[in-house]
Design brief:
Blueprint (H helix, E strand, L loop, with lengths): L1 E4 L7 H14 L5 E4 L6 H9 L3 E3 L2 H6 L2 H4 L9 E4 L6 H10 L2 E4 L3 H15 L3 E5 L5 H7 L6 E4 L2 H6 L8 E5 L5 H13 L4 E3 L5 H16 L2 E5 L5 H13 L3 E4 L15 E6 L5 H14 L1
Parallel strand pairs: 1-12, 2-3, 2-4, 4-5, 6-7, 6-8, 8-9, 10-11, 10-12
Helix pairs in contact: 6-7, 10-11
The chain binds iron/sulfur cluster.
Length: 293
């Protein structure tokens, strides 16, 4: 039996950059905070917590914090807040600045690019359409950089229902981790409505590559294992894609969740992992399957 890892799996550029930033900041000896969990992976967050990194859970919590109290008397102990790869709405950035927090922005440059696009396009009067999950922090962040009308759509039905006004120009962008085919389909729905405006495909390459290579591997595999955090939207999408190709697809967070029973006929076990899954976890699963089956 062969165990094969998808060509692209695990930490993407933006997540690696954000996680590395936190580990670098820990070395400064200051109190480190992240605004929301740094990545959607409980294992990574737990490890950082062990090293003293604290997570600020909400805007209200942030508002109740006082940088003077955060800091000890010694300069070296002052707190630093790190903005995660998903980015934050402008309002949160303003609060951080106004309160005088020391702030390290680890927003992924690809997400930052979307902030700039929607800010510019909404300043020029366009209605911004964000194709993505309205509850996802990245989408909340993007929404928070729009200065005018903004609509978040996730489904074909929502796109069908959207009323295109002839006098209104639209700018359509996407959550970086959105499924590429779904995005294309939603854009087609807008085309049929004869919308006026621009479409910017802001799906990140890392996402597309992960999705493409997961799909290719799942199409050949007898069993497929998808590793990633429960709240990781890109992992869930990988699972969705792999399940479509391979009936025996498992979604696990860590090796403990894996209860595999492989019939003898299984020839190929495929493994893929979301962009916030550390290499260590992927290797553990890979080794386990290789050694035990
Ligand atoms: Fe950045 Fe892409 Fe990774 Fe999102 S998936 S953090 S946009 S590199």
């Amino acid at each position: 039996m062969e165990v094969r890892l998808a060509e692209c799996a695990g930490f993407c550029f933006g997540v690696k950059r954000a996680v590395d930033t936190v580990y670098e900041q820990i070395k400064t000896g200051k109190t480190i905070y992240t605004y929301g969990p740094i990545v959607h992976n409980e294992e990574v967050v737990k490890d950082l917590e062990k090293q003293g990194v604290r997570v600020i859970g909400s805007r209200e919590e942030l508002l109740s914090m006082n940088p003077e109290k955060v800091s000890d008397d010694q300069e070296a102990k002052k707190g630093t807040i790190i903005i995660r790869a998903h980015g934050v709405p402008r309002e949160i950035q303003n609060i951080l600045e106004q309160k005088g927090f020391e702030c390290v922005d680890a927003t992924c440059p690809f997400v930052k690019r979307i902030h700039r696009i929607v800010e510019k396009e909404s300043n020029s009067g366009k209605h911004i359409i964000i194709i993505g999950n309205p509850g996802h922090p990245e989408v909340e962040g993007i929404r928070g950089w729009c200065n005018g009308p903004v609509t978040v759509l996730e489904t074909y039905k929502e796109a069908e229902k959207f009323e295109v006004k002839p006098e209104e120009e639209l700018c359509i962008v996407s959550q970086t981790t959105f499924n590429y085919n779904k995005f294309q389909h939603i854009v087609e729905i807008f085309e049929k409505k004869g919308y006026n405006g621009t479409v910017v495909n802001t799906i990140c390459n890392a996402t597309e590559e992960r999705q493409r290579s997961a799909k290719a591997l799942a199409a050949q595999a007898d069993v497929m294992i998808v590793i990633g955090g429960r709240h990781s939207s890109n992992t869930r999408k990988l699972y969705e894609i792999c399940s479509g190709e391979c009936a025996q697809t498992y979604y696990i967070q860590t090796l403990d969740d894996l209860h595999l029973e492989l019939p003898k006929a299984v020839r190929l076990v495929g493994i893929t992992a979301g962009a916030s899954t550390p290499n260590k976890l992927i290797e553990e699963v890979q080794n386990y399957v290789r050694v035990n089956f």
